[in-house]
Amino acid sequence: MSDIDRRYAERLMGQARLDALVIFQPEAFRYAIGAAAGVATMWGRAGAAIALVPADASAGLAAVASDHAAGSIRKAVPDVDLRTHRVWIDMLDLTGAGNVDQINEAYRQLGSAGPRPETFDRSACFGLLGDLLKERGLERSKIGADLEFMPAADFEALKLALPTVSWADGSEVLRRLRAVKTPGEIERLRRAARAAEAGLVRMVAVVKPGASLAELSSAWKAGAQADAAEGGFGLSSHWDFISVGTDLSDMAAVVTPGALIKADVGALVDGYSSDGARTFTHGPASPLAREIFKALESAFAAGLDELRPGNTFGAVHAVMLASMRRDGFAEYYRGHFGHSVGGSVGIEEWPFFSAGNPEIIQPNMVVALETPFYGQGIGALMIEDQFLITETGAECMNSLPRTLRDLSAE
After folding, report:
1. Same domain, 291 and 192
2. Calpha distance 183→391 (Å, rounded)
3. Are residues 14 and 114 part of one domain?
4. What are phi and psi of 358, to 5 degrees?
């Protein structure tokens, strides 16, 4: 099922004077259509998978995808108007076939006889898109494309292939759509945050002097995967940025008394990534590390107080930076103190808690608020939690204490 709020999309496209969105990025295709775009997107080019989202919320969604992915797409979203193109992969239903002649006949029945493209035929894909636009009376309309993703060469080819369309950059509309989450997206992110935090609990259990960074990472992954299995869901992926000790680039580091252990981790559920971080030690941290962390705690609390609908992302950044200044960090500059989370290519999504950002915090956004500090020769310290913005404030999706935890004392 599509994760797009069609009424909200209609309003945003109306404000941008767009008659439709045409989406090429594979992750955004999944978001728009409700099914994976398929392996043909591995080439990083536009056209292998295309989602058509009309501005009119009552008009159905349409898609262009490979014949290889067509079966799974039709099964997941049977109501989507799907047009298929051939890719390099031969695949047939050979149920009951007993000889080569029957295999050849299956090809003919499928209409798949003849050479296949090296990867996919971009011009054929754009032609199918043109058919969809013409059938819906959109061939002379103003249409937004996700140009933040689309390679320049592919956009030039698109304009040549469909010259009667007035093409515009629809990236901002797509960003705004994705920033406000549907209930399904929120549930994926909630599950992902739960699994990631369970991984931290497992990681903490193996922290001791001599434990390697690799062992901590392995324990975290095992804990996250076990929690997902127990919860009846799977992880589509996971990531971790764990550092141990004073050298932030030392992948062979081991736990030593008082060394900082920063774990910035995320689990993915159906492509939606959580983001959270905690800092630990085994033995007392240095006085300077404790002073830094106290400032990070104060800045985090200041930002959390401002995390509510109607406020701006820039206002949150301002109070957090001001808090660091009050604690004496006159030259601490942080480009952002957090961001939206979701199902895009990267861990961090727009909008960001950055200086002067006028974007308004809205209900049903899911954001990560963070206060990081990286110091070669000292180590890394970080607090980060994931929040659902509600009608009145922010609901934390994490439960572990935000303190600088000395695990030797527990």
Report:
1. yes
2. 14
3. yes
4. -85, 0
Instruction: Please tell me the pTM assigned to this model.
Output: 0.92
β-strands 166-169, 62-66 pairing: unpaired
Residues 6 or more apart from 14 whose CB is under 8 A from it? 55
Q: Which two tokens stand for residue 379?
A: 């180590």
The answer to whether residue 293 sits within a structural domain is yes
CB 33 within 8 A of CB 52: no
Answer yes or no: do 110 and 135 share one domain: yes
Side-chain-side CA neighbours of 367 within 13 Å: the count stands at 32
Tell whether 1 is covered by a domain.
Answer: no
Out of 115, 150, 179, pick the residue that ends a domain: 179
Q: How far is it, in rounded angstroms, from Cα 408 to Cα 155?
A: 57
Residue 198 in 3-state DSSP? helix
Distance (Å, whole) CA 375 – CA 388: 31
Structural domain harbouring 296: 183-409
pLDDT above 90 covers a percentage of the chain that reads 91
pLDDT per residue over 364-377, tens digit each? Answer: 999 999 999 999 99
Q: Which of 73, 167, 175, 181 is nearest to 126 (CA)?
A: 167
Residue 194 tokens, joined = 């739960």
Q: Do residue 199 and residue 141 come from a single domain?
A: no
CATH number of the domain that residue 291 is part of: 3.90.230.10
